[in-house]
């Protein structure tokens, strides 16, 4: 793999604006109006969100991530896609580098809602 150049520097204050949290993917379901999106129902401990992720064609079996913990950006504005609302973003690894994406996840189970960073 050819390494991509590092993006331009940001300040620590810029980084602090991101709210990245651990959530458990409790349900993976199809988004009927999309060839790419799957709907993830994610438990963040004190609340549950619907997050759309473009994993339908990236994974042989997109349902295999059900029950797993992963990292999510939770302070993005709601986004309407394919007739559904996404309340955050899956923080995965590989897609930007044209690799088979994998989940960014804690090495041990942690409470849902735990913050990264």
TrEMBL record:
<dbReference type="InterPro" id="IPR051270">
    <property type="entry name" value="Tyrosine-tRNA_ligase_regulator"/>
</dbReference>
<dbReference type="InterPro" id="IPR012340">
    <property type="entry name" value="NA-bd_OB-fold"/>
</dbReference>
<dbReference type="InterPro" id="IPR002547">
    <property type="entry name" value="tRNA-bd_dom"/>
</dbReference>
<protein>
    <recommendedName>
        <fullName>tRNA-binding domain-containing protein</fullName>
    </recommendedName>
</protein>
<keyword id="KW-0820">tRNA-binding</keyword>
<keyword id="KW-0694">RNA-binding</keyword>
<feature type="domain" description="TRNA-binding">
    <location>
        <begin position="14"/>
        <end position="117"/>
    </location>
</feature>
<dbReference type="GO" id="GO:0000049">
    <property type="term" value="F:tRNA binding"/>
</dbReference>
<dbReference type="Pfam" id="PF01588">
    <property type="entry name" value="tRNA_bind"/>
</dbReference>
């Amino acid at each position: 793999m050819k390494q991509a150049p590092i993006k331009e520097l940001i300040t620590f204050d810029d980084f602090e604006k991101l709210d990245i949290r651990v959530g458990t993917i409790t349900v993976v379901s199809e988004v009927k109006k999309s060839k790419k999106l799957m709907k993830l129902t994610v438990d963040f401990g004190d609340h549950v969100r619907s997050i759309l992720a473009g994993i339908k064609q990236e994974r042989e079996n997109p349902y295999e991530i059900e029950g797993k913990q992963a990292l999510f950006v939770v302070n993005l504005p709601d986004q309407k896609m394919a007739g559904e609302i996404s309340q955050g973003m899956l923080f995965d690894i590989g897609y930007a580098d044209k690799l088979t994406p994998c989940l960014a996840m804690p090495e041990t189970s942690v409470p849902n809602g735990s913050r990264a960073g």
